[in-house]
Write a structure and sequence with these properties.
There is one protein chain. By secondary structure, the chain is of the alpha/beta class. It folds into two domains: about 5-125, 3-Layer(aba) Sandwich (Rossmann fold); about 130-285 and about 315-335, 2-Layer Sandwich (Dihydrodipicolinate Reductase, domain 2), CATH 3.30.360. About 35% of the residues lie in helices and about 25% in strands. The chain has helices at about 15-25, 40-50, 60-65, 80-90, 110-120, 130-140, 175-190, 290-300, 310-330, and strands at about 5-10, 30-35, 55, 70-75, 95, 120-125, 150-160, 200-205, 210-220, 225-230, 235-245, 250, 265-270, 280-285, 335. The strands form two sheets. It has a nine-stranded mixed β-sheet. A six-stranded parallel β-sheet has the order 3-2-1-4-5-6, with helices on both faces. β5, α5 and β6 form a beta-alpha-beta unit. α4 runs parallel beside α5 (about 110-120) and α7 (about 175-190) packs across α9. The longest helix has 20 residues, at about 310-330. It is globular. The mean pLDDT is about 95.
Length: about 325
């Protein structure tokens, strides 16, 4: 009998899992959350009870050994992504892997080879590409409505000075560029459908954490610029401005759109800089995490084409590699 739902398993009790992805899997019509694993069995049981999950395991290997798990969601710390995913691959599990996929682009190569060998689908968890507002924006740009894009400008920031938070631990891949700089990077590549030729960046680092807490980057997409500022010790803020030769698009809730709240995009007509004189497009509440889960499950159920694979993830990581190299050397770096 043809399978109707895909069974998911989650490793780790990370906040992004129980706050966003677990509810998304439960909500998805073609997906079923079958099991959760944690190095702490008590934490696994706690989340099992909270979300009424069928199974819980006290180790990741136990979950990998479960023959009924089709896809593993991996939200472990950045530096553990490759190691744990290589093991899951060996057990024939498809993987949704949190961003950034690795700490270096070259580290993805063994995963690409292993996934090909075992015929495994591995995707980087950039949920933003699945939000209806971004899909609409991309179509609107492709229609020529805003003219030619000149520049994409992004701001993404929050405040976190907790020394025990993984985002503030350098060896675990903490810092602004790894944690949130990857978003304006991927969304620029998504909108422009090409890769930047070179990157220049600068950063301020925390004296104790040694992580970048304020970084500004300029990506040169062969004459189209994308600039962004990301910060981990500033006020909570997000905005993306897409500057065209005819119109400008302002995305007011670009990355962490809350599933219960609408999102707003303002299309500036090029004549007035006042918001009330322009077009305000409101998108109804949408769960971008649920869309991401459903799309992945459909790859297995309906054999749909994989939209963003490991090669795409490596391209994004190459841009981040060049960004860090530019911060260190203080000059333009080829991607």
């Amino acid at each position: 009998m043809k399978k109707k739902v895909i069974n998911w398993g989650i490793i780790s009790s990370a906040k992004i899992g129980w706050e966003h992805v677990i509810p998304a899997i439960i909500k998805s019509k073609n997906s079923n959350l079958l099991a959760i694993a944690s190095r702490s069995k008590s934490k696994a049981i706690q989340l099992q009870k909270k979300f009424n999950i069928t199974k819980s395991y006290g180790s990741y290997d136990e979950l990998y050994l479960d023959p009924n798990i089709d896809i593993v969601y991996n939200p472990l710390p950045n530096h553990l992504h490759i190691k744990t995913s290589l093991k899951a691959c060996a057990y024939g599990k498809h993987i949704l892997l949190e961003k950034p996929l690795s700490l270096k682009a070259k580290d993805i190569n063994p995963l690409i080879k292993k996934a090909a060998k075992h015929k495994i689908i591995i995707k980087e968890a950039f949920m933003v590409r699945h939000h209806p507002q971004w899909q609409w924006i991309k179509k609107y740009i492709k229609s020529g409505s805003i003219g030619k894009i000149s520049n994409i400008s992004s701001v993404f920031s929050y405040f976190n000075k907790d020394p025990n938070n993984i985002r503030n631990i350098q060896k675990y891949g903490g810092g602004a560029v790894y944690d949130i700089g990857c978003y304006p990077t991927v969304i620029s590549r998504y909108l422009l459908d090409k890769e930047p030729k070179r990157v220049v960046a600068t950063a301020i680092k925390d004296k104790n954490f040694k992580t970048d807490i304020l970084s500004t980057t300029l990506l040169d997409f062969d004459g189209v610029f994308s600039s962004y500022t990301v910060a981990t010790q500033s006020t909570n803020s997000q905005k993306v401005i897409i500057l065209g030769t005819k119109k400008t698009i302002v995305v007011e809730n670009p990355f962490n759109a809350i599933k219960s709240k609408p999102t707003t995009v303002v299309i500036y007509n090029g004549r007035s800089i006042y918001r009330k004189d322009n077009t305000i497009k409101v998108f109804k509440p949408s769960d971008q995490y649920e869309h991401q889960v459903t799309v992945f499950s459909d790859h297995l159920l309906k054999k749909t084409k994989v939209d963003y694979d490991l090669k795409d993830a490596k391209k994004n990581m190459k841009v981040l590699d060049a960004t860090f190299k530019s911060i260190k050397r203080g000059k333009w770096i080829k991607v």
